[in-house]
Amino acid sequence: MVVGVDGSAGGWQAVDWAVDQAARTGLPLRIVYASLWQHYARRLPAAGRRRPDEHAYADQLLGTALARARTRQPQVPLSAVTEAGEPVEVLLREARGAAQLVVGPRGDGGMVGMMLGSVGLSVAARALCPVVVARGTARNREAADRPVVVGVGEGPGAVAALRFAFGEAARRGGELVAVRAWRAPAGSTRAAGPAERRWAERHLGAVLAEAGGEHPGVRVSAQTVQGPPPLVLVEAAAEAALLVLAVPRGESAHGLQLGRTSHVALHHADCPVAVVPVPH
């Protein structure tokens, strides 16, 4: 498990969620602070180098993060490191060897009123491991007995998201709520009706059967809901411990590879949001 910290309130939310998740998974937690000063200091003449306030700040920040995580979950193996570079690039490098990467909903440099910071959005859009944005209300972030909600879309992403969600529900001992939104075909002049609902139910049943074999003990609620997927899922996750979504990843790591549903959830969900990358 890897968590990014920056000293912001959102960063501390991420540390708390990440160390709890590390305890659930049995994984060690690596706490990472990205330092632009160290990045540029490598280019300074040796005679001009000194231990600056930024270096002391990094040490203090990581020490505080370690103490906070150790107090919360003393059994979790911890490490902390300052890495030189832009936060997005540092966290994307860390994600290559991580089981999960956790970030806060808004960093220290975020503009007032922004619902998700640029670092969190960029990492969620490009990382090659599952990314969790530790957003939402305190009761949803910290209540392990609340359900895990997963959005079931099309293609291989549906199974990938469900497998991830089944694992999370099993670790929490709670319910899995699998949600498939359905609407009338684009351009249709009639309201969505029985045919669309039946197709959504068949699709949801098929992917649940394919993905749930490893966790037969998990209680499952399958829901087909009429409406736009972003709004349906945000409403379904209002009382959830976690919302899980699949996001396709192309061969290039450049660009924000997020759809409208993921954007809305990452900005508006009342619970942490897990983005599961799916190669395509």
Automatic annotation (TrEMBL):
Pfam family of the protein (one): Usp
Tree of life domain: Bacteria
Limits of the UspA domain: 2-135, 146-277
Family membership noted in the UniProt record: Belongs to the universal stress protein A family.
Protein name: Universal stress protein
Organism (species): Streptomyces physcomitrii
